[in-house]
Specification:
about 725 residues, mainly beta, Neuraminidase, five-stranded mixed β-sheet, five-stranded antiparallel β-sheet, elongated, disordered N terminus
């Protein structure tokens, strides 16, 4: 029986304060690549993006801004599990935001020639036909747009952003930003009904140069505005009067990582970090929520609920970031900046429960909070959003949540992700360190081996080069839990200059670890014998015959068969025939090296190589994959009979083994309803034949951060 992990629960492992499993959960049901909206013949290698997103009143059509292409894209979600492209509509400038009333989209378009001469217009467009219905000059560079829920009002933040290459990138550069707001006549655009509201003289930080970032309108017609760089919040009445304004304030952060050194150490304290909110959304007519991304002077890595009089109702502190750390979504390469960078907010009521959705731009995840008590919101889920979530739209009438993800030029395409609130267990995360004795950060899992009693041991790769770690995973819990982190050491200090790509057991409570060399960085091609406590007891460097022909893409897995260690080499070395890679053998008794050749598939695009090797029964099992995403040609478990694994001496002709493709993993990956990830890297097989597979999330660097860790049942 094949077990799909998409049916597993995950909520319980997030935090001890979280409630028991609920009947309703959000699960991703589909994703839509923005390149699907490009016309036939267009260059699909061009950068595309999905940034701010909105839905028609019936919830059947989505429209999003795509700044790199200078278009808005449209998606038919009549069947939300099978979204269909409706094409792009080209604009006379850069779209910055969009709101919808009925089937009319209101789009902010930036036409600025320079920072000192900002300009732009507000455009009305029929979502279904793409026809322009009118436009109004805004007198400056628009950023965010909001329309009221009843469709009677509109607000536009005119940011007039600064030149970050001037004046140390600080505010104080004219012209100042302002707010444009007004009534919509039966959902139609009337330029005469729009009015400018100045925002100068309010903020304590560069009050003469406000840069409004985000806006939202409550049921009273009041507009809340975040002045991100000014660290200030303003509430403006429907008549243009200032209802309230106040500094967004600062927080103390305890337990954060501030160093980008290839390790995860959440031990530092930052005092008085200014919030500098980005997105803001009304929770009700008296409270609003801010995502405190930060900019010039801070970024508190969390989010806040304010009363519109300025009092703080709730402050997340580091709790949101810590929750992302536990599910492997912490972006270590942003430690020196703003960590997970909460940037987007959505609020809506589902099933009678008021909810808050907080999007982490750098952690590529969204936190779902029950806001029944605004003073004590409860984190109920963490969802994988796609790379760089920028905007969200909730469609409660259809039980849908949509995320727009702006990053799509470094591998996978930019995507719009669709989640459904449904009667089903939560499908994500697959793996968490919640419940461990201490906060364990993790990611970039690159190799695995099965132990006893449902335990899997996994290693991280050189992304965390200053903190090589063996993770202890309990697969008997749902989701699987990282219960311990064994730090790999050399003479008691963290072992550096390693790229751990494979792990196996020595039968005596210790490990053998394969390290993929990179000589230019001083990383040795080697096998390391590591004690159960993590200390390197012995080093087995690759022999001179291999070092004479080595390439950068080397050891990707290790397994033990009796007294022989077998190492899977990822790609061809200089002496290998085309589409053949070595399986290296090292005899622990004689200390002799040998090899066989493994025939891999030819690459249609990119390259094909090996990612793992695991012995079980009468076979060795391997992962063979390409480096492609949703256009992947092969991601499979293969196997070779042990009676063929007879190594020949190095330097001569090697025997070629016969492989059997056992399982195509692409349907498994597609079944997670995101894009197909490139790096399937771990395979662990228990004594009874039950196999677990894992993917490498690249430390959330140009990655969605998702780690898929699932059982495929018994081989």
């Amino acid at each position: 029986m094949i077990i799909r992990y998409a049916a597993a629960t995950s909520v319980l492992a997030l935090a001890t304060a979280m409630p028991a499993f609920a009947e309703m959960n959000f699960n991703r049901i589909a994703s839509f690549a923005t390149v699907a909206n490009m016309a036939e013949g267009e260059d699909t290698t061009r950068e595309t993006s999905a940034e701010i997103i909105a839905a028609t009143a019936d919830g059947m059509t989505l429209i999003y801004t795509d700044s790199p292409l200078g278009v808005v894209g449209r998606i038919d979600i009549t069947d939300p599990a099978n979204p269909q492209p409706m094409g792009n509509v080209a604009l006379d400038g850069e779209p910055t935001s969009v709101g919808v009333v009925g089937t009319t989209a209101f789009i902010g378009v930036n036409t600025s020639e320079s920072y000192t001469a900002p300009s732009g217009f507000l455009m009305a467009m029929d979502v279904m036909t793409g026809a322009e219905l009118g436009r109004c000059d805004l007198g400056g560079q628009p950023d965010a747009i909001a329309v009221s829920k009843d469709g009677s009002r509109i607000a536009v933040a005119i940011e007039n952003e600064r030149d970050e290459d001037l004046g140390d990138g600080r505010t104080g550069q004219m012209p100042a930003g302002f707010l444009v707001q007004g009534a919509l006549a039966d959902g139609a655009l009337d330029c005469d009904a729009l009015a400018q509201v100045p925002l100068t003289g309010l903020a304590e930080v560069d009050g003469d140069d406000p840069e409004p970032e985000f806006v939202d309108i409550n049921g009273l017609g009041e507009t809340v505005i975040s002045l991100q760089e000014n660290n200030h919040m303003v509430v403006v009445g429907a008549d243009g009067g200032i209802v309230s304004h106040f500094p967004a304030g600062a927080v103390d952060l305890v337990g954060v990582d501030t160093q980008e050194e290839g390790a995860l150490h959440f031990t530092e304290t930052l005092a008085g970090v200014v919030r500098e909110p980005d997105a803001v959304k009304w929770l009700d007519d008296d409270h609003f929520v801010t995502a405190n991304e930060g900019d010039m002077d801070g970024g508190s890595r969390g989010w806040t609920i304010f009363n519109k009089d300025g009092s703080v109702v709730y402050e997340a502190g580091v709790s949101f970031e810590h929750a992302l750390i536990e599910i492997g979504h912490y972006p270590e390469e942003r430690s020196g900046n703003k960590g997970v960078e909460p940037e987007s907010v959505e609020t809506a009521t589902f099933g009678g429960t008021p909810m808050i959705f907080i999007g982490s731009e750098r952690g590529s995840a969204v936190g779902v909070y029950d806001a029944t008590n605004p003073a004590e919101p409860v984190l109920t889920q963490l969802l994988p959003s796609g790379i760089g979530p920028e905007g969200y739209v909730a469609i409660p009438g259809r039980n849908l949540l949509i995320s727009a993800n702006e990053v799509g030029d470094a591998g996978p395409d930019a995507h719009v992700m669709i989640f459904e609130y449904q009667e089903a267990p939560a499908a994500y995360p697959h793996l968490t360190s919640a419940g461990a004795d201490e906060l364990i950060g993790w990611g970039a899992i690159s190799g695995m081996v099965a132990g006893e009693n449902g335990t899997v041991y996994a290693v991280n790769d050189s992304f965390y080069g200053m903190q090589p770690t063996i993770f202890v995973i309990d697969t008997t819990q749902t989701p699987a839990r990282i219960t311990d982190a064994i730090r790999v050491t050399r003479e008691g200090a963290p072992a550096q200059l390693m790229d751990m790509e494979g792990i196996t057991l020595d039968g005596e409570g210790n490990f053998y670890v394969a390290s993929e060399g990179r000589l230019g960085r001083g990383i040795l091609h080697a096998i390391y014998h590591v004690t159960g406590e993590g200390e390197i007891a012995a080093t087995i460097p690759f022999p001179k015959e291999i070092m004479a022909v080595e390439r950068r893409w080397a050891a990707e897995g290790v397994t033990r068969v009796g007294n022989t260690l077998w190492v899977a080499i990822q790609r061809e070395f200089d002496d290998d025939p085309e589409n053949h890679v070595k399986l290296l053998a090292y005899n622990l008794e004689t200390e002799e090296w040998g090899a066989v050749h493994y025939p891999k598939e030819a690459a249609e695009t990119g390259w094909v190589g090996l990612s793992e090797i695991t012995a079980h029964g009468d076979h060795v099992y391997l992962i063979e994959r390409d480096n492609q995403f949703s256009n992947s040609a092969i991601k499979a478990i293969t196997r070779v009979s042990l009676d063929q694994m007879v190594p020949a001496p190095l330097g001569g002709e090697l025997p070629v083994v016969t492989k059997e493709i056992l399982r195509d993993l692409r349907p498994d990956l597609a079944g997670f309803n995101g894009y197909i990830v490139d790096k399937v890297e771990g395979l662990a097989i228990f004594e009874d034949g039950t196999a677990w597979v894992s993917t490498d999330n690249d430390g959330v660097d140009d990655s969605s951060g998702e780690t898929f860790f699932w059982s495929i049942g018994k081989l």
